[in-house]
């Protein structure tokens, strides 16, 4: 079972000589962090970012005096050095935000992570009785047989019983990942849910502890998080300034389409609005999606590696941003919706993160929807998907249609790596092949095909350097 902490692939040669040129593919947090650390040590770096600005998912949009992040980024870290760097970067714009989240279960809003007693009170009585019976049977059964860990369903059902697993874990996992929990790796359950002792569960009922604290989830869902007052986009902006001030080069709207191995190292070909360009370097750090990396490599990688890269599964995300004529809609930072009858996975009101994210007497909601490129949801027009979202928001009693005065949509094709049953085998095959090339490194969420947060991407980038 993979541990929840970030593990980096073994490196062939450390970047330990001055006057080497490092080409960094991708300008997200991982790529920027690699570059930042390297320029601090005096290395020459060149970043290639396909979008018009750096940051990857950690970007902020300014739309009619409303600020929207591309994705949710509640920054926190168990690593003191990473947290210190983040705080120093953001400076006086840093906010400490008290986390408060809800989940919509059985027609009611309850705290998330839910307290055990809250689950007991909210769950329909028949489901509760069945869950308790299955839970006890499961715990006894585990005394005589080792737990299964292959799939998400195996992992959760063997620990909590079918009913409890289905309603608290599997439904949301299926909705979020657009894949049966039987086809998702147990690594995902281990990473996000954790494990627990039966005595902790009993104590928690009377102590009213939260679900996460009982199940010892490794996902950092602490009571507070750190956030820039005008959006997460300040994070990559500040790193970029550090890089440029040290003489680093950042190329935006630069789409890498070919990587050649040459005598002195590597040559990267990339497309710009002004035509094709080439750059050479002694080292490469890639943070771009593995399938795009494999496709662009010359000489071509083996058929097995190409097949493995094509087998990797990524989720796309559609973000619907809705502007509302009301000072506040909620008093929480995040609300989850596990029901598949509701199109979106969760909503955020960034004004509850920072009052500077929206005008005084108005607010906005940021709506997260996962899908795959080319599926029914992805093919919906912006108008169709917005209409459906507003209808669902009315049904769950968040807003009324007449309060909405504007909206816009953006789509992110490579948002989440999906941990299916074969992801470890496929990624290991690709990494092992790339590991045969000198001074070639992988880093980041898409570069390493790891579901990590922005603090972990920063840490991984710095460690890679």
UniProtKB/TrEMBL annotation:
Provide one Gene Ontology cellular component: cytosol
One GO MF term on file is: UDP-galactopyranose mutase activity
**InterPro entries in alphabetical order:** Amino_oxidase (IPR002937), FAD/NAD-bd_sf (IPR036188)
* Coiled-coil annotated spans: none
Q: Which residues form the Amine oxidase domain?
A: 29-465
Q: What is this protein called?
A: Amine oxidase domain-containing protein
């Amino acid at each position: 079972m993979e541990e929840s902490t970030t593990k980096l692939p073994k490196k062939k040669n450390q970047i330990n000589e001055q006057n080497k040129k490092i080409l960094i593919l991708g300008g997200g947090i991982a790529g920027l962090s690699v570059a930042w650390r390297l320029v601090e040590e005096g290395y020459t770096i060149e970043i290639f970012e396909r979008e018009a600005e750096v940051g990857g998912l950690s970007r902020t949009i300014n739309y009619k005096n409303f600020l929207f992040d591309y994705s949710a980024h509640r920054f926190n870290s168990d690593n003191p050095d990473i947290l210190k760097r983040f705080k120093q970067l953001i400076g006086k714009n840093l906010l400490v935000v008290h986390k408060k989240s809800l989940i919509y279960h059985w027609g009611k809003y309850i705290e998330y992570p839910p307290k055990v007693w809250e689950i007991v009170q909210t769950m329909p009585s028949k489901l509760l009785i069945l869950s308790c019976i299955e839970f006890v049977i499961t715990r006894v059964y585990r005394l005589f047989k080792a737990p299964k860990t292959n799939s998400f369903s195996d992992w959760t059902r063997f620990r909590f019983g079918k009913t409890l697993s289905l309603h608290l874990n599997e439904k949301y996992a299926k909705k979020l990942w657009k894949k049966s929990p039987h086809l998702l790796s147990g690594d995902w359950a281990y990473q996000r849910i954790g494990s627990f002792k039966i005595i902790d569960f009993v104590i928690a009922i009377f102590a009213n502890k939260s679900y996460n604290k009982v199940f010892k989830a490794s996902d950092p869902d602490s009571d507070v998080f750190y956030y820039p007052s005008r959006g997460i986009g300040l994070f990559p902006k500040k790193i970029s300034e550090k890089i440029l001030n040290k003489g680093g080069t950042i190329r935006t709207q630069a789409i890498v389409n070919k990587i050649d191995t040459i005598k002195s190292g590597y040559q990267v070909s990339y497309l710009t609005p002004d035509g094709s360009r080439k750059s050479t370097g002694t080292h490469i750090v890639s943070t771009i999606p593995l399938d795009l990396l494999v496709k662009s490599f010359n000489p071509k990688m083996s058929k097995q590696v190409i097949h493995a890269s094509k087998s990797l599964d990524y989720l796309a995300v559609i973000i619907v941003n809705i502007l509302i004529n009301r000072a506040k809609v909620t008093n929480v930072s995040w609300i989850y919706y596990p029901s598949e009858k509701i199109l979106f996975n969760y909503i955020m009101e960034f004004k509850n993160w920072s009052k500077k994210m929206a005008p005084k007497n108005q607010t906005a909601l940021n709506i997260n929807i996962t899908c795959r490129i080319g599926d029914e949801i992805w093919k919906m027009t912006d108008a169709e998907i917005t209409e459906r979202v507003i209808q669902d928001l009315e049904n769950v009693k968040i807003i009324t249609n007449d309060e909405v005065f504007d909206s816009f949509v953006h789509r992110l094709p490579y948002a989440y790596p999906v941990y299916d049953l074969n992801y470890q085998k496929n990624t290991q095959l690709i990494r092992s092949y790339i590991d045969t090339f000198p001074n070639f490194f992988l880093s980041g969420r898409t570069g390493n095909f790891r579901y990590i947060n922005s603090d972990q991407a920063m840490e991984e980038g710095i460690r890679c350097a």
